[in-house]
Design a protein that fits this description.
The complex is a heterodimer of chains A (316) and B (536).
Chain A (H helix, E strand, L loop, with lengths): L1 H28 L4 H6 L5 H11 L5 H13 L13 H36 L4 H15 L2 H15 L15 H35 L2 H8 L4 H31 L1 H6 L5 H10 L3 H29 L1 H5 L3
Helix pairs in contact in A: 1-13, 5-6, 5-8, 5-10, 6-8, 7-8, 8-10, 9-10, 10-13, 12-13
Chain B lengths: L1 E12 L2 E12 L3 E5 L6 H9 L6 E9 L2 E2 L5 H7 L4 E4 L13 H13 L3 H14 L18 H13 L5 E5 L7 H18 L2 E6 L2 H7 L2 E6 L2 E7 H7 L3 H10 L17 E10 L13 E11 L4 E5 L6 H8 L7 E6 L2 E5 L12 E4 L13 H6 L11 H14 L16 H13 L5 E5 L7 H18 L2 E6 L2 H7 L2 E6 L2 E7 H6 L4 H9 L3 H6 L4
Parallel strand pairs in B: 3-8, 3-9, 6-7, 7-8, 13-18, 13-19, 16-17, 17-18
Antiparallel strand pairs in B: 1-2, 1-4, 4-5, 9-10, 11-12, 11-14, 14-15, 19-20
Helix pairs in contact in B: 3-4, 3-5, 4-5, 5-6, 6-17, 9-14, 12-13
Classes of the chains: A mainly alpha (316), B alpha/beta (536).
Chain lengths: 316, 536
C-alpha cells in the first residue's frame, strides 16, 4: 500500500511539473503583448518597453519560468495586468463560489445517479429500467443552459422560490448562499447525473453477470443481498473514474451556467481574462485547474486502491 | 437416507426444452457422477436443484432435498436452503470468488447468512473450514484476498464456503476441469474425504469419464436433456448397455490409427537449440532492477518429417511461452530455432519472413480465434499473405475448397460466417486455415482441449489422417496426458522452463523416469485403472 501511495505521489509531482512547463510555454507563444495591450494603441514604445521590464517580461525564458514557479509555491500568482490587484485575491474571490458549486453539483449528481443506476441494473428490462434510461437520454441531450433557463422560469419567475441569479456572498449566511447556488447546481448536475447513472447501470450489469455473483447466490444470499454485498463495490471502479472527470469538468466548465445565473465564478474570470489579454490571470487559473485535476486524479487512484485490493499489490 | 431425489424433471428456457426426463437419486455419504457432453443438461440439472435457473426458465417435476419438496418453497425459503442444505462448487475457481473481499469474509458469509452467528463466531467457523480443506492458518490467514491464491487454492476456498454449514447435498460442477492434473487429483481426494467424513451426498458433474470412474459410486449418463443410463458405476461401465454409453466410452479411449512412420533420416523440420525466453519482472523497489524471469531455460529438441511430438506440463511451466517463441511471436534471449535446417529466428535476430509460411498454428479456443465479421473464405485464405505469389480468383477458390474438403467440410461452407459453426467445426476451420499454405509443421496449442470427447476423437482422427497424407509434423501442446498419449510419437515433459524428460511416448508413459513425470502420470485419472481396481 505504501509503495502504491509513493508511486502515485511521484507521478502526481511529475505531472504537475510537466503541466506547468506546457502552460508556461503555450502562454509565451500566444500572440498579443500584455504590455502594449495595457498601454493602449498609441502608446510610446519607450513607455511600453519600460512597462515590459517592470512586469519582468524582458527576462530570459528559463528565469521567468523559475520565477513564476517560485511565486506559485509561495502563493504569489503575480498581479493582474488589467485589474492591477494580486491574482491570488481575484482567484480566491471566485474559488469560494466555484468550488462549493462544483461539490454541490457533484453531490446532487451522485445522489441521483447511484439509486437510478442501481435500480435500473437490478431490475433490468423492467419499467423502472426503461424509465431511468429514457430520463438519462433526455438529461444528456438537453443543453444545460436551456435547462437552467427553464429552472429560472419555473422556480424564480413563476413560483418565486429562488432568485434568478447573483450571489449574496457567504457573509449573508450559509443558508442563503446555498440557496443561491441551488438552481445552478441542479442545472450543472442534470447531464452529469445522467451520464453517471448510465455508467453505474452498465458497470453493475456487467458485474451481476460475473461468476462470483452466482457463487454468492449459491451460498444463500438473496438477489438484493448479493447485489449490495458483492456487486456494488466491484462495479464502482468505472463510476469513480467518471466522478473524477466530472469534478474537473465542473470546476471550470460551469462558465455558461455561471453566465446564466450571474455568478462570479472561475469560468467567468478566465473568460474575461482571455478577452482582455490578461495572460497572467489566465495562466494562474489554468495552472490552478490543472492542479485540481491532478489532485482529484490522485484521490481517485486512492479510491481505486481502497475499493480493489488487487491494485494495492500490483501495477495497473 | 436419500439426500437428493429428482424425478420427472423438465426444464424449458424461453420455450426451448433443455431437460425433458431427468430422474436421479443420491444417498448421503455417496457420490453420484453425472456425465455428459456439452449441452446434455448437466449444469441445468444442477441449477434446477439450486433453483438458480436462468431467467425465462420454467421447470416441472419433483425435486426433493433432504425430503423437502422444492416446489413448495418460496424464494425466502429457497435462500435458506441454498448454502445450508445444498452447497455448490463451480468449474472456474479463478472467477468464482469475489476479488475485493477476503477469503475469511467470504467463507464466514455462508455462516452469517444462515445462522445469525456473530461475525467473530462466523470467522472462527471459517477458520476451521479453511483448515479442513487444507489451507492452514500460518500460510492462509483469513485476511488473504483471492488474488493471492492459485487456482487449486481458490477451489479449496470455494469448497470451504460450500461445506461451511455441512449441507446434506454438495453439487460440484466440473470442479477440477480447469485445474492441472496433480491439483485435480488433490481436489478430488479432498471431495471424496469430505463426503465420507461429513456424510454428505455429492453430485459430481463432469465430462471426464475417467474422473467419475475413479470416484463415483453410481453414475448417470445424460444426453440431450435426458438420462440415458444410470446405475452403479462399475456395472454401467462393465456392461456398456446403452449405445451412447458405449460411444462415449470408446471416444474417451480413442487412439487414432496412423500408418506412416516419421522420416528420421532427413533434416529435421524443426530444430530448437538452447532456446531461452526471459521476461522482465515488475519493479518492486524503485532503484533495484529485478532479475529477469526465465520462462524457458535452455530448451533443445527436434521434430522430424511426419513426426508428432507432444509437449506436456502443468500451467506455468513455460509450454505456451515456448510455443510463442517457436512461432516467433516473441523474441529469443538465447539459442536459435531452425526450420528445415535454415535459421528461422535466433537471439538478437528477428524471424526470417520467407520461412514463416512453413509453420502454422491452431489455438485452443474455437470461439475466440476467428474474426466474427469475416466469411470462412477470407478466414481460411488469410495465411496466403505469408507467401510471395498468393493465388487469386478461381485458383484461390479452388485452394480454399481443397483445404475445407481436406478437413471434412464442404465448399459451400466458404460463404458462411463463423458463428454458424459448432466448436468442433470451428476447430476444423482453424486446421484448414493452417493447412492452406501447405506448411511442414503445425503447432497445436491445446487444440482439442475445449472439445467434447466424441468431437475430440473425430478431430484427432482428422489430424492423424492429415499427418499421414500430407507428411505433416505436429507439435502437440496439451495438459491432457491421455490425448498426447493417443496421438504423438514422442513426448517432451516440461517443468519450470526446462525439458525434464523426453522419449518415445509409450515408453515415457509406461515407465516414467523423472519424478515429475511419475507424479503427472500417477495423477492422471485413468479409466482402465479405475475399473480394474477392486471394489471399495
Amino acid at each position: 500500500m505504501t509503495a502504491y501511495l509513493l508511486r502515485r505521489l511521484l507521478s502526481l509531482c511529475l505531472s504537475l511539473i510537466a503541466a506547468s512547463l506546457v502552460i508556461f510555454l503555450v502562454m509565451e507563444m500566444v500572440p498579443g503583448d500584455p504590455a502594449s495591450f495595457m498601454m493602449g494603441l498609441n502608446a510610446d514604445p519607450a513607455a511600453v518597453a519600460a512597462l515590459r521590464s517592470q512586469l519582468g517580461l524582458d527576462a530570459p525564458l528559463p528565469l521567468r519560468y523559475l520565477g513564476w514557479v517560485a511565486g506559485l509555491l509561495q502563493g504569489d500568482f503575480g498581479v493582474s495586468y488589467t485589474y492591477r490587484v494580486p491574482v491570488s485575491e481575484l482567484i480566491a474571490e471566485r474559488v469560494v463560489i466555484s468550488l462549493p458549486l462544483t461539490l454541490y453539483a457533484l453531490t446532487l449528481s451522485t445522489l441521483i445517479a447511484f439509486p437510478a443506476g442501481i435500480i435500473a441494473a437490478a431490475r433490468r428490462n423492467s419499467f423502472a429500467d426503461f424509465s431511468v434510461m429514457g430520463a438519462t437520454q433526455f438529461g444528456v441531450a438537453i443543453p444545460n443552459f436551456w435547462f437552467a433557463m427553464i429552472l429560472v422560469l419555473i422556480f424564480s419567475i413563476n413560483l418565486r422560490w429562488m432568485s434568478a441569479g447573483g450571489f449574496p456572498g457567504w457573509e449573508a449566511g450559509f443558508g442563503s448562499a446555498m440557496k443561491a447556488l441551488t438552481l445552478p447546481a441542479i442545472a450543472l448536475a442534470l447531464p452529469q447525473a445522467s451520464i453517471l447513472a448510465r455508467v453505474m447501470r452498465s458497470s453493475l450489469i456487467d458485474t451481476l453477470e460475473e461468476d462470483f455473483m452466482r457463487t454468492a447466490r449459491a451460498k444463500g444470499l438473496s438477489r438484493s443481498q448479493a447485489l449490495w454485498r458483492h456487486a456494488l463495490r466491484n462495479a464502482l471502479i468505472p463510476v469513480l473514474t467518471i466522478i473524477g472527470l466530472q469534478f474537473s469538468f465542473l470546476l471550470a466548465g460551469g462558465i455558461i451556467i455561471e453566465n446564466v445565473f450571474y455568478l462570479p465564478g472561475l469560468g467567468r474570470l478566465v473568460f474575461q481574462a482571455i478577452t482582455q489579454r490578461d495572460l497572467i490571470v489566465v495562466r494562474s487559473v489554468v495552472i490552478l485547474l490543472v492542479f485540481a485535476v491532478i489532485v482529484v486524479t490522485f484521490l481517485v487512484d486512492l479510491a481505486y486502491a481502497a475499493v480493489d485490493p488487487r491494485l494495492r499489490r500490483h501495477r495497473q | 437416507m436419500t439426500a437428493l431425489s429428482i424425478s420427472n424433471l423438465k426444464v424449458q428456457i424461453h420455450g426451448t426444452t433443455v431437460l425433458h426426463d431427468i430422474d436421479l437419486s443420491l444417498d448421503a455419504g455417496r457420490i453420484l457422477g453425472v456425465v455428459g457432453e456439452s449441452g446434455s443438461g448437466k449444469s441445468m440439472t444442477a441449477l434446477s436443484v439450486m433453483q438458480l435457473l436462468p431467467r425465462g426458465s420454467v421447470w416441472s417435476g419433483d425435486i426433493r432435498v433432504a425430503g423437502n419438496d422444492l416446489d413448495t418453497l418460496d424464494e425466502a425459503a429457497l435462500c435458506q436452503m441454498r448454502g445450508r442444505d445444498v452447497g455448490m462448487i463451480f468449474q472456474e475457481p479463478m472467477t468464482a470468488l469475489n476479488p475485493v473481499r477476503t477469503i475469511g469474509d467470504q467463507v464466514a458469509e455462508t455462516v452469517c447468512v444462515h445462522t445469525g452467528a456473530s461475525r467473530r463466531e462466523a470467522l472462527a467457523i471459517a477458520r476451521r473450514m479453511l483448515d479442513r480443506v487444507g489451507l492452514p492458518e500460518d500460510r492462509f490467514p483469513l485476511d488473504r484476498y483471492p488474488h493471492d491464491l492459485s487456482g487449486g487454492q481458490r477451489q479449496r476456498v470455494v469448497i470451504a464456503q460450500a461445506i461451511a454449514l455441512r449441507p446434506k447435498v454438495l453439487i460440484a460442477d466440473e470442479p477440477s476441469t480447469a485445474l492441472d492434473v496433480t491439483t485435480q487429483a488433490q481436489i478430488l481426494d479432498l471431495l471424496r474425504q469430505l463426503v465420507r467424513e461429513e456424510d454428505m451426498g455429492l453430485m459430481l458433474i463432469t465430462h471426464d469419464l475417467a474422473v467419475v470412474a475413479g470416484l463415483a459410486d453410481s453414475i448417470a449418463i445424460l444426453k440431450e436433456g435426458a438420462v440415458v443410463e444410470s446405475g452403479p458405476t462399475r456395472e454401467v461401465f462393465r456392461a456398456l448397455r446403452h449405445p451412447y454409453t458405449r460411444a462415449l466410452f470408446s471416444a474417451s479411449a480413442h487412439v487414432p490409427e496412423r500408418s506412416r512412420k516419421p522420416a528420421l533420416a532427413r533434416t529435421p523440420v524443426l530444430a530448437v537449440e538452447n532456446v531461452v525466453r526471459e521476461y522482465q519482472q515488475p519493479r518492486r523497489r524503485l532503484f533495484v532492477r529485478p532479475p529477469p524471469f526465465r520462462a524457458v531455460d535452455q530448451v533443445s529438441f527436434e521434430i522430424r518429417h511426419g513426426e508428432n511430438v507432444g509437449l506436456v506440463g502443468e500451467s506455468g511451466c513455460g509450454k505456451s511461452t515456448l510455443a510463442r517463441a517457436i512461432l516467433a511471436l516473441d523474441g529469443l534471449q538465447g539459442g536459435n530455432i531452425r526450420l528445415n535446417g535454415h535459421v528461422f529466428t535466433s537471439a538478437g535476430d528477428g524471424p526470417n519472413p520467407e520461412l514463416r509460411s512453413r509453420m502454422q498454428v491452431v489455438f485452443q479456443d474455437p470461439y475466440g480465434s476467428f474474426n466474427p465479421r469475416h466469411r470462412v473464405h477470407r478466414l481460411v485464405s488469410e495465411p496466403f499473405h505469408l507467401v510471395g505469389s498468393a493465388p487469386r480468383g478461381a485458383e484461390l477458390d479452388r485452394r480454399v475448397d481443397r483445404a475445407l474438403t481436406e478437413v471434412g467440410l464442404t465448399s459451400s461452407d466458404a460463404g458462411k460466417y463463423i458463428h454458424e459453426f459448432s466448436g468442433g467445426q470451428r476447430q476444423r476451420i482453424a486446421i484448414a486455415r493452417a493447412l492452406i499454405i501447405e506448411p511442414a509443421l503445425i503447432v497445436l496449442d491445446e487444440a482439442v482441449s475445449a472439445l467434447d470427447v466424441s468431437i475430440r476423437a473425430q478431430v484427432l482422427d482428422l489430424l492423424a489422417g492429415l499427418s499421414d497424407r500430407l507428411d505433416l509434423s505436429y507439435l502437440f501442446i496439451s495438459h491432457d496426458l491421455s490425448v498426447v498419449r493417443a496421438i504423438t510419437d514422442r513426448v517432451l515433459v516440461m517443468k519450470d522452463g526446462q525439458i525434464v524428460e523426453q522419449g518415445e511416448t509409450e515408453s515415457v508413459f509406461r515407465n516414467p523416469q523423472h519424478p515429475y513425470t511419475q507424479t503427472l502420470v500417477a495423477a492422471t485419472p485413468s479409466l482402465e485403472a479405475a475399473l480394474a481396481a477392486p471394489a471399495s
